[in-house]
Amino acid sequence: MNSRIEHCILEFHARLRADPHHRFRSWGHCYRYFRQVRTGQITLDVDSASLHLGFYLASWGMYRGASFLLWKDYKLHRYAIRDLFRKKYRVLWNLDYARIRDEARTADLLLDLADRLRHTYRIHVPAVNGAKRRVQATDTLVTKILLGTLACTPAYDGFVREGLHADGIKYSYLNKRHILALWRFCNDHDREFRHVQRRIRENGVKYPVMKLVDMYFWIRGQRAAARWASA
Q1: Are 168 and 158 in contact (CB under 8 A)?
Q2: What is the pTM (predicted TM-score) of this model?
Q3: How far lies 152's CA from each of 14, 30, 100, 133, 155, in Å?
Q4: Alpha-carbon gap, residue 93 to 146, rounded angstroms
Q5: What is the pLDDT along the chain (231 residues), one digit of tens a residue?
Q6: What per-residue confidence (pLDDT) applies to 202?
Q7: Contact predicate 190/198, CB 8 Å
Q8: CA–CA distance, 131 with 219 (Å, rounded to integer)
Q9: Sign of CA dihedral 153, 211, 198, 185
Q10: Residue 225: which residues within 8 A CB-CB, separation 6 or more?
Q11: 128 Cβ neighbours under 8 A, 6+ residues apart
Q12: Residues 156-191, buried b or exposed e (16+ Cβ, 10 A)?
């Protein structure tokens, strides 16, 4: 098999292989910690979990510019950690689009968790650098949290959004119609994703399918952005 999906994912993965300290590896460190907790290999330590999540988010660009996180320490994430481990969201851990029994209900649950995370950060950040502020956890922040912990969605940064657009998948904000369209795309290309999933590992851990989806759209979007910039 020699598909565009495989090419994109392998291109992304090649950057990690070429650099043992590449920032892309921060996702793997974070995900492995939460995977070990989820599978009972280690006991959840909220402080350690918050530190893992905080560094991954910083490494993936979420502590720069006007982000409210820039003014907070890693312990802020402990409230989000508690949300992630709520029993009602158990089905979202390592979500596999091809094995969802009730897509509509699962999409609603994913959106419910995203809204809960937004609410959690909003109520625990009443001020930023001494000034009162009503913060808004963006789709980018929320989905990066979900990708690095539960691995149930791609992370909607600029390149992923460009990649979605390049493949004709409409996205304006995280909503049910978009999620269902994304899962349809993934199911239509399931063979390609499964093939590359069997080919690569990260420190012995098989990539969850939604991480592969993220890798594909990130490279797809980066390529598209480069073409438009040079046009």
Answers
A1: no
A2: 0.95
A3: 23, 14, 12, 30, 10
A4: 9
A5: 569 999 999 999 999 989 999 999 999 999 999 999 999 999 999 999 999 999 999 999 999 988 999 999 999 999 999 999 999 999 999 999 999 999 999 999 999 999 999 999 999 999 999 999 999 999 999 999 999 999 999 999 999 999 999 999 999 999 999 999 999 999 999 999 999 999 998 766 789 999 999 999 999 999 998 887 775
A6: 74
A7: no
A8: 38
A9: positive
A10: 158, 159, 162
A11: 68, 71, 135
A12: bbebbbbbbebbeeebeebeeebbebbbebbeebee
| Tokens (6 digits) for 128 | 């930023």
DSSP string, the chain: ---HHHHHHHHHHHHHHH-TT-TTHHHHHHHHHHHHHHTTSS---HHHHHHHHHHHHHHTTTTSTT-GGGGS-GGGGHHHHHHHT-GGGGGGTT--GGG-S-HHHHHHHHHHHHHHHHHHHHHH-SEETTEE------HHHHHHHHHHHT--S----HHHHHHHHHTT---SSS-HHHHHHHHHHHHHTHHHHHHHHHH-EETTEEPPHHHHHHHHHHHHHHHHHHHHHH-
Tokens 């049910």 correspond to what residue? Answer: 176
Tokens linked to 56: 């991954």
CB atoms within 10 A of CB 134: 8
